[in-house]
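Quarterly update from the structural biology core.
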Amino acid sequence: MCILLRNISGLATPAEELPPYEIRIIEDAIIAADQGKIAYIGPESGLPPLNIDAVYNCRGSFATPGLIDSHTHPVFSAAREHEFHMRNAGKSYAEIAASGGGIRASVRELRKASIEYLVELLRDRFNGFLALGTTTIEAKSGYGLSFMDEMKSLRALKELREHPLEVIPTFLGAHEIPDEYRGQRESYIQLLIDEMIPAVVSEGLAEYCDIFVEKNVYTVEEARRILTAAKNAGLALRLHVDQLTSGGGAELAAELGAVSAEHLDYISDEGIDRMIEAGVVFNLLPGAVFFLGHTKYPPARKIIDKGGIIALSTDFNPGSSMTRSLPLMMTIACVYMGMSADEALASVTLNAARSVKRNNIIGSLEAGKQADIVLWDIPGHDYIPYHYGENLVNCVFKKGRLVYRKPECGDNREFD
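Predicted structure, tokenized:
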């Protein structure tokens, strides 16, 4: 199908040929998409001959690329709202985890769930991402921590491959040491290396392998062994590092040639320099800092000023960041991390696409790329982080197909 979006008040987009945080503004543009890809952007007078199948009157909406959430944990079977209230009553994240809460609580619940139930939950969660303007997510396993349950988690993601939300799967079997392997962690590490990683690769269930490198979780040396095995098996690498302490995780990400290192609240200056030199994307998760009640945010200004590429993500998960809203992440990044509106938008679009190695096909509104488009009820892109806590999305297109419309925007007849 070939579609035409008309009466757009303006659009904002990064672009491959621009510096990493520069935004191009085009006023009074139209967008034509053919076979799921952008065929033309610009004034209507320059529209090339196309066989238009449908015209959408955008009624003054403002356009941006579809948002990309490059760090999420959507495969879980139960929420943990009680932990939220425990933290607010004075318990720390570490104390809750030590008492059997945290990641291991989600593991116990997921192991009880059928794949059918997980698929049902994921479908609803995916719809919620779309409604908030997110058209692509990176999605991790990590709440199974056994061969059977990690495979179940990744298979549940694969079951929804026809859903409009584009999903990039990551194997996170090394999210924690499961309860049954406490005191015999080497046996679990060998299970990851010898059985789980080969099985994930054999079934084509993941593109990436991730690991949580942190005090009382996995050491740098353990991570090096697991990730080297994953890399040798054909998986690209991303790492949870330097979230709660500075432990050399960023340096390890650079050493191993990871695509992305994530969290980075306590990254060292050497880690910043090493990651920039190695071309690793800085994937920052301000929602987790905010939701846990912490005050130390990752040093976005220092990273940008040194030339690093930042992606912003929600870290959507039931324990430390229960949100799917990238616009909210933009607000937090502007308020607490000193980022500008241009920097924030680039970090949830083209820079986020770089974090999942998709910047050649998504992340910006450019001819030849996927027609992943968000239409907003805003005067300009700098309004997105400013007007926080409300959904300003009017419509979402994925590969040129309308996949979400705010109810008050009317029915198809009004837009066609």
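The chain is about 35% helix and 20% strand.
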